[in-house]
């Protein structure tokens, strides 16, 4: 080192300069992406916020419900897409927040100012408890643990009648006022849901590009290597689980105010299927996909149930939704709009474009 | 002594429920052990078995009572019930066949598991569509429903039959898995499916066999369980829950684990309901959490 100080200094200087310019370029790229995303976000948000001016109350309510499902789907994608943990327990976090708000408001007469933070806290605590048990396993075993935990929640909600109201749950929950606007009207609740969804999305997007978020993705792809590098894999997973519990809890509070009732069914198999389906339709590796998927699924269910009523005079739309779910798993496992989605390939062919390329790449990927 | 009476009755009920749970969970764990597919439609197949068994047994009994009343009298409803159980087995096997065909198109444990969830929802809703929402039970044949005295207490004979059936199933599965050529191949497939395929065994057909066997067993357990426990929409989720608790406590993929787990869950459920009523579910959940906290792989499971 001492014999050729100038050479070594020069090399170090070059390297530093190169790193600096690389960092600069990366920063410029990410700044451009942020600007582009902000613009895109505004292009979606502004029409969405103005929609109630033209849409009917029914459609506004449909969108509200879709966004709530989408929030749960987003909390699912957060775990599945960015940390590889496929959790079936999200509706338990939704459920506990909903129950806390309902019980606090109905049984104890607490104001929403107290019950809403309590509900979010309860969702985080439950996620922390579930996480303690579940993060030690991975893959299919994680899924099994979370399903067992969801079923425990369902069982407690069903059988602890003196607190939860048992099978019938708790009903008659009234919506509070916010900024002088009564959420009893469809539009203010819709705007609130839209704002919460957008904030949650932006917050999670920000979090995923922090060192914490990046190490999570590293853990998803190479848990052993990340562990060897000194990252605390289970701690990361546990924290993410709590965060996803918080997001699902937000959805639970919006949901209990939207429906005005909460029952053990929120943690049942069919209710738990909805956010899964939304996340799958939108693509599990995308957060915004969950939100869009939630809206898509809610609209789909509304259409299917109306058609079933009309054609078969039957209210059994779940048969159709179940088959649709299986079709999505088989034909578009990475989301309806992913490049290997058969629907997209078929659409491309139908529109006369060369769909062969898409099909080829899909084949290669397998 | 009413407390003694209650204790023996609770114990027997727990054993009966545990026996049924063992039959339900053994199909579940068999399929999981070989294919790493968590069959979330397991509860739905149980429910379907109950409904199909109900329809088959009532139809046959009515036909028999109308056409050959003497034979119907003599059999005490046994023919209808037996055919109901058989029909349930066929229904369960058929669903398993369909499921296996669907699953072959999907790659990855998680996607396959999600597919079974879709099937569970579809079957559950179809059952509600066809059979409505009222709770149903099959009529037990007279021959096996006479009360039997146990420790001085009369106990329904049918429930003892359930225990006997579970023991037979357990012995049968043990012989099949550990004393037969098919069992050797299945166990080899659990350990290393690529190797089994490489030595020239048709692994697809093996999977299909096990899947159909598991489905048929589940269908049968639906008819047999449905003869003393009423079933209705929602039973599918309940059964999936307890089956999962059993295999999670006992260890996934282990037959011995299933039997021990089934007894634990059955007894806790029975005693919890009898002595703690509302807190029973906490007792059960607490046990599951405790086992998981100290042994993630369950009591008899191998570390994953």
UniProtKB/TrEMBL annotation, chain A:
Matching InterPro entries: ABC_transp_permease, LivM-like
Recorded topology in the membrane: Multi-pass membrane protein
Keywords: Cell membrane, Membrane, Transmembrane, Transmembrane helix
Subcellular location: Cell membrane
Pfam families on file: BPD_transp_2
Record carries keyword Cell membrane: yes
Positions of transmembrane segments: 37-54, 60-79, 91-108, 114-133, 140-160, 187-208, 235-258, 278-304, 316-337
The UniProt record lists the keyword Membrane: yes
Record's protein name: Branched-chain amino acid ABC transporter permease
TrEMBL record, chain B:
Transmembrane helix is among the record's keywords: yes
Principal localisation: membrane
Keywords: Amino-acid transport, Cell membrane, Membrane, Transmembrane, Transmembrane helix, Transport
Domain of life: Bacteria
Cellular location(s): Cell membrane
Residue spans crossing the bilayer: 15-38, 45-65, 77-99, 111-131, 158-177, 206-231, 243-268, 275-294
UniProt topology in membrane: Multi-pass membrane protein
Pfam families named in the record: BPD_transp_2
Family: Belongs to the binding-protein-dependent transport system permease family. LivHM subfamily.
UniProt name for this protein: Branched-chain amino acid ABC transporter permease
Organism expressing this protein natively: Rhodovibrio sodomensis
